[in-house]
Amino acid sequence: MTTIDFNAQRLDHAKQIVSKIKLPAQPTIVIEINKEMRSEHPNFARIANLVTQDASISAKVINVINSPFFGLASKCESIVKALTYMGLENFRKVVLTACLQDALGGTTPADKIFWDHSLHTAVAAESLAKTMRGILTSEDITPDMAYMTGLFHDCAIPMLLKRCPDYLPFTDAALSHKRDIIQDEDALIGSDHCVVGGLLAKTWSLPDAVCKTIIHHHTTDLSKQGAVPQRLIALVKVADYIAYTFGFSVGMVDRIIDGEWDPEEWSEINEAVLHELHLGPDDLIDMKDQIFEQLSVQ
Q1: 106-298: which CATH number, 1.10.10.10, 1.10.3210.10, 1.10.150.20, 3.10.20.340?
Q2: In Å, how far are 16, 63, 104, 129, 291 from 298, measured between CA atoms?
Q3: 229 and 213 in contact (C-beta within 8 Å)?
Q4: 168: how many CB neighbours lie within 10 A of its CB?
Q5: What is the tens place of the pLDDT at every residue in 204-247?
Q6: Chain segment 56-113, per-residue pLDDT in tens
Q7: Residue-wise over 55-76: b if at least 16 C-beta within 10 A, else e?
Q8: CA–CA dist 168, 185 (Å, integer)
Q9: How far apart are CA 36 and CA 40, in angstroms?
Q10: SS3 sequence, the chain?
Q11: Tens digits of per-residue pLDDT, 175-209?
Q12: What would the pLDDT profile of 263-285 be if each residue is shown by its tens digit?
C-alpha cells in the first residue's frame, strides 16, 4: 500500500531537483486568459487576439476544434469562431493543453506515450467528475479542476526523462501504478514525479487542490494523507487507470509498457479508492466502457 510522506524537508529537496530541471514558467497567454475569465465581463475579442498572436498555440486550437469530437459540419479556420463554438471554459482548457504540450516538448516514443496518456486521463477525469458531480460537492471539485489534474498529473515524466536517461525503465510504473515507484524514483533522482509535477502545477498557478492531488496521486491509502482532496485523488486514480487501459485497446502503447492491468486486480488493490467514490468493481467496468467510447472520437 502506497503512502506518500510529504513534508517540508521533502519539498525542499524536490525544489533543489527542480532547480536543475528548470521548470517551464507559466505562459503569458495562460496568465492573461485566466485574468480575463476572472473579470465580470470577459473580453472574447481580447482572448482570441492573445491566442492568434501565438502561431503554435493557434494551430493546436484549430486542430482540436476540427477533430471528430466536435463534429463540425464545415472546417473552422478562425480562432474567433473556435472560441464561439467551444465556449470560454472549453477554449481555456484547449489553450492550457496546447501550452503544456509546447512547454514540455519531446518527440520520442516515450514522450508520445506520456502525452496521449495525459490527455486521455484529463478527458476521463472530466467525464467522471460530471457523472459523479453529486458526491464531489463536499470538496468543491469541478469538472474543470478534474481535467487540469488529469492533464498535469504526470507532467514531470518528460522533464525527468530529459534530465536522467536512466529514468526510461520507470515510465511504465509511473504511468500504470502497477508497483510502488516512489521509493525507486527517490533513490534514482532524489525526488519523484508526483512532487516535481505538483511543483510545476504550482508554478502555473493551478488551484491548490489540483497541486495537492498531483503530489499524492500514487497513494492507495487515502486515509493517511491528511488535509488533501481525497475524492479528487480517487477520481484521478480511476481516470488514470481508464486512460492507461485505453492505450492498450487502440494499440497506442508500445514496448515501454509491460502489459495491461486487469480491472479485477486493480479494483482489489484500490478498494479504498473505489469506496471513496461510492463505486464497486462493476461500476468501474461500466464507466471504463463509457469513457472508451468518448475517447475513441477524440
Answers
A1: 1.10.3210.10
A2: 38, 11, 21, 18, 11
A3: yes
A4: 14
A5: 999 999 999 999 888 877 765 565 789 999 999 999 999 988 87
A6: 899 989 988 888 777 788 899 999 999 998 899 889 999 999 999 888 887 777 788 8
A7: eebbebbbebbeeeeeeeeeeb
A8: 11
A9: 8
A10: CCCCCCCHHHHHHHHHHHHHHCCCCCCHHHHHHHHHHHCCCCCHHHHHHHHHCCHHHHHHHHHHHCCCCCCCCCCCCCHHHHHHHHCHHHHHHHHHHHHHHHHHCCCCHHHHHHHHHHHHHHHHHHHHHHHCHHHHHHHCCCHHHHHHHHHHCCCHHHHHHHHCHHHHHHHHHHHHCCCCCHHHHHHHHCCCHHHHHHHHHHHCCCCHHHHHHHHCCCCCCHHHCCCCCHHHHHHHHHHHHHHHHHHHHCCCCCCCCCCCCCHHHHHHHCHHHHHHCCCCHHHHHHHHHHHHHHHCCC
A11: 655 556 777 777 777 778 888 899 999 999 999 99
A12: 888 888 888 899 999 999 899 98
| Domain residue ranges in the chain | 22-104, 106-298
Q: Residue length, the chain?
A: 298
Give CA torsion, residues 169, 172, 175, 177, to 10 deg.
-110
Cell numbers that stand for 46 in this block: 481580447
